[in-house]
Amino acid sequence: MILSLQVDSETPLYEQLRNQIVIGIATGELAPQEKLPTVRQLAEDLGINTMTVNKAYMLLKQEGYIVIDRRHGAKVSPRTSDNPDLSPRLEEQLQLLIAQAAIQGVNQSRFQSLCSQIFAKMAYRHP
Amino acid sequence: MILSLQVDSETPLYEQLRNQIVIGIATGELAPQEKLPTVRQLAEDLGINTMTVNKAYMLLKQEGYIVIDRRHGAKVSPRTSDNPDLSPRLEEQLQLLIAQAAIQGVNQSRFQSLCSQIFAKMAYRHP
Amino acid sequence: MILSLQVDSETPLYEQLRNQIVIGIATGELAPQEKLPTVRQLAEDLGINTMTVNKAYMLLKQEGYIVIDRRHGAKVSPRTSDNPDLSPRLEEQLQLLIAQAAIQGVNQSRFQSLCSQIFAKMAYRHP
Amino acid sequence: MILSLQVDSETPLYEQLRNQIVIGIATGELAPQEKLPTVRQLAEDLGINTMTVNKAYMLLKQEGYIVIDRRHGAKVSPRTSDNPDLSPRLEEQLQLLIAQAAIQGVNQSRFQSLCSQIFAKMAYRHP
DNA sequence: GTGGTCTAGACCACA
DNA sequence: GTGGTCTAGACCACG
Questions:
Q1: Is the pLDDT confidence value at A125 over 70?
Q2: Rounded to the nearest 10 degrees, how much is the dihedral formed by the CA atoms of C25, C30, C36, C41?
Q3: Mean pLDDT of C83-98
Q4: CB less than 7 Å from strand F: which protein residues?
């Protein structure tokens, strides 16, 4: 999986890393149980500090996206969660996002169709 | 309109302010051309510094959500934009949001229905 | 002559007024000796404060663009100046302007040709 | 690069700073990718507040002149833009500038020759 | 009365 | 060590 960082972004590097890995998991590019690169390896590949990669991994672990085993390194969590409701935090984000879209002139059907397109790329689908 | 801040949030105060005002505009709680509180007034009401409020207003102005009239202070922009496409930035955010939802176990129809609910609250609707 | 103000501009109203009158004089839309509207009249037409118009007139007077006679109001100055050199202040502005143009990718010949076009509209030409 | 501020100028300090850096970039005194002084350093050198420098940097960043890298501070943007047309905003400024020059008695060839001189100092030239 | 600018100092997040 | 945020207060330009 290819990770690309923008050093001049508003988003901190560790968060960019976290976001891309989350998307990788959702799209199936990273399979459940798949091993992630070591902190050191990834840091070197990306030319960034190991602390930064470590912070991203800690965050992903804390959020339950990956599990970290001292012997085998980091792996994508086996999928378990099946909670049909969006977390309040995500719901709030979605509201803000839709607000901006609505003001800008995006109508609902256009928005919904875009959602469908994005959902279609996700491997983690629930019926 | 009621604005509430969480001082212990990760999100900077000025950004919380900006977000709530954007949502207020989208839901119609703040009508186009409506006058916003003065920088000083809002700062005092919220118990924060004027520069923090000023920063939020500058951001909103720069993004086109409000207009700052030297004579009468800040007002909600008259709605003009009617761009059916989501900006790349928002689209990226939406992708990340859906990725998280999908992993967590939210299925597409549930997500879409939530979007509908949120859209229903928006006054800024386009057919 | 038509004057239009943007209340949401960075440029103060009195300066916008001053700028438009200067351009009017240069293009010949306002002839030398031509009478300008009274402060009160112009303020009413534009829906702004008389103080604002007054400030613009004072500035124009101080810069020599107009003369103010208590009996007959403000008139465009008869053309007198014939100084072939740009004032240091304008030269500095020109340098900044060209710097921005150059960085943005405008080449010299394109810039020069634009200058020619603008000069062509000026009535105040010197051989 | 030497930066000098006039505290008694009409132009805000942060804008003076911005202007001088823009000119520095255009003349090549500041090369693409070159590191700018840190906010703190520059503030100390100039005897002004860090927030003032910060505001200048934010403005330059927003305008695309510099890039702010979380790791190493601010750097001059790698040159990319190659737009042969002047932005409407600059064109308007140019018109005002030429109007003032024309009234003052500067003729076109004199003006053009001054432009040439200024262009000659710019490193950011396009054929 | 409005926003715009600036200061002197502080604390925090990021890397 | 970097920039980002915030404060409490001040002064100024604009209208």
A1: no
A2: -100
A3: 94
A4: B 12-15, 48-52, 55, 70-71; C 12-15, 48-49, 51-52, 55; D 38-41, 50-51, 54, 57-58, 68, 70, 72-74
